[in-house]
Amino acid sequence: MSELSPSFVPNIIGGKEQPAIGGQTLDVLNPHDGTRLAGLARSSAADVAAAVASARSAQVSWAAIPPVQRGEILTRICNALEANKSELAQIVALEAGKRLSDAAGEASAAILCGRFFAGEGQRLFGRTTTSGTADKWAMTIRQPCGVAGLIIAANTPAPNFAWKVFPALVCGNAVVLKTAEDTPISSWFMARIAEQAGLPKGVLNLVHGFGSEAGQALVEHDDIDVLSFTGSTRVGRMIGETAGRRLKKVSLELGGKNALIVCDDADLDNAVKWVVAAAFSNAGQRCAAGSRIIVFSSVYEAFQDKLIAATRALKLGVDADCDLGPVINQRQLDHMLAAIDKAVHSGAHVLVGGARAQDSSLSTGFYMQPTILAGLADDDESSTTELFGPITAMYRVPDFEAAIALANRSPYGLTGSIHTSSIDRAFAFIGRLEAGVAVVNGGTHGSEPHMPFGGTKASGNGTREPGTEALDIYTNLKDVYLNIRPPIG
Ligand code: NAD
Q: Per the domain annotation, does 452 fall within a domain?
């Protein structure tokens, strides 16, 4: 079995690679051409229970290692990932259907995130403060939650792994990771490397399989102390309900329907460049994708012409000269085609794209043409639900007030961007956008590992990952009071 094309991707439980207990499997497909890449363990509640038990027994001794030393182990893992970066990038490119350069960028981003959290081992700060009583000290310390149940989405598999696994580990938790069923190979590869680099067995356990089986079993397991989920708002809501009933700590990083405003004083070429990147890079499979392009009336036609030309010039495929790859699976492709059909029936028109890729060399892959819709009502289903593919929609507004009102008229609140040369508009936008991220003269996407990412409204439950804010998810605070008993001899 080659590491890049394993014929079977097993669970990793207590350091042992193993098939699902029931022997069930599912297939991992290459979204570029629909061919089978590998078989995958299709885990059930029994596998999840074994993984949780393994994590529970490994956690105490992992937590007993001083955080600085846990950070050093993370550094060794990152060094090993660096040494294996080209293999990791090739796996990501294959299983997620990306250009190798994009996959390599994601591998680097995952390593950068790991290095940031390695350093947090030296900064797992509590707080020392004043007391209202004489001869008394008041402070807080951070302690691990225990066993962390992590569930990730398929879109950027290496950073998705890194954003959750590294902070959970440095904080002293043991982990059960439910990988994304479409992109599990990179998680398996990274977990193996982690163990080879010195992570004790059982501290990071991997279970693969369907969300409704392995994922749900993890969410419902009694012995999980903290849950962190990245995925759709629909599933996040269910997880939040279950966690709420059980009073479990939970972090939900969910979907977006992100607005990018183009003002009449914008650099239109720069705005076009960023809209194309925000809407179509990674085939639009970003929670932070720019899916609502709100343009001032006075520049609408000029901007639209430029955007249509730039979109028509995009090349589909995974070769070095291509701009966007396939979406992750056939179900996603069908979902998008149906959504466009519905939008057209309710009065929208397609400015560019709107169909499956026509090129016969792409016909077995899950390729969707980059698509721009116009004429959608702001309350149309396609304006208010995330499509998670290379589809964006244009809206015309008279002025700034109308633009900001429309940007905020969304069930989601993840990110937003404005293109303007006015500092007043830029700051007004930053202050008034109802979202977790506001960008000026850039894309709606792109975040850095030391920054707290997350959204408002249906984009999450208010938590932020990664950044130092992730430490709040993966640790519990304990208040400590120290009383001095005078006289001191
Ligand atoms: P999804 O919600 O269908 O699946 C995400 C993960 O949850 C997968 O591992 C899946 O197996 C699992 N899952 C599915 N049903 C489950 C259940 N009932 N119980 C437990 N786990 C379950 O999402 P998707 O379509 O794979 O991913 C795309 C979504 O992820 C989009 O909505 C996107 O915006 C979101 N996302 C958010 C962020 C963020 O940081 N806010 C980042 C990336 C992706």
A: no
Are 110 and 37 part of one and the same domain? yes
| Same domain as 473, residue 353 | no
**Residues 233 and 342 occupy one common structural domain:** no
Ligand 1 centroid – CA 161 distance (Å): 13
State which amino acid sits at residue 396: R
What b/e string do you get for 235-250 counting C-beta neighbours within 10 Å, with b at 16 or more? bbebbbeebeeeebbb
Identify the residues whose C-beta falls under 6 Å from ligand 1.
151-155, 178, 180-181, 210-212, 215-216, 219, 230-232, 235, 238-239, 253-256, 287, 386, 388, 453
pLDDT tier, 1 (very low <50, low <70, confident <90, very high otherwise): very low
Ligand 1 nearest atom to the CA of residue 386, by list position: 32
pLDDT above 70 covers a percentage of the chain that reads 99
Half-sphere exposure of 202 (CA within 13 A, CB side): 15
Cis, peptide link before residue 466, omega less than 30° from 0 = yes
Residue identifier of the C-alpha nearest atom 16 of ligand 1: 211
CATH number at residue 228: 3.40.605.10
Q: Work out which ligand 1 atom sits closest to the CA atom of 181.
A: 11
Question: Tokens 């303007």 map to which residue?
Answer: 420
Q: Per-residue pLDDT tens for 3-25?
A: 566 899 999 999 999 999 999 99
Tokens, residue 223:
């012995």
Could you read off the pLDDT of 132-147 as tens digits, one per residue? Answer: 999 999 999 999 999 9
Is 287 labeled as catalytic in the residue annotation? yes
* Catalytic residue flag (residue 241): no
The C-alpha atoms of residue 114 and residue 452 are separated, in whole angstroms, by 15
Domain around 164? 8-254+460-478
Residues 200 and 316 in one domain: no
Asked if 422 and 469 sit in the same domain, the reply is no
The number of domains in the chain is 2
Substitution candidate for ligand 1 out of 28, 210, 235, 285 with most atoms within 8 A of CB:
235
Ligand 1 midpoint to CA 477 (Å): 28
| 184 and 320 together in one domain | no
CATH number at residue 399: 3.40.309.10
Nearest Cα residue to atom 30 of ligand 1 = 231
Question: What tens digit of pLDDT does each residue of 303-354 get?
Answer: 999 999 999 999 999 999 999 999 999 999 999 999 999 999 999 999 999 9
pTM of the model: 0.97
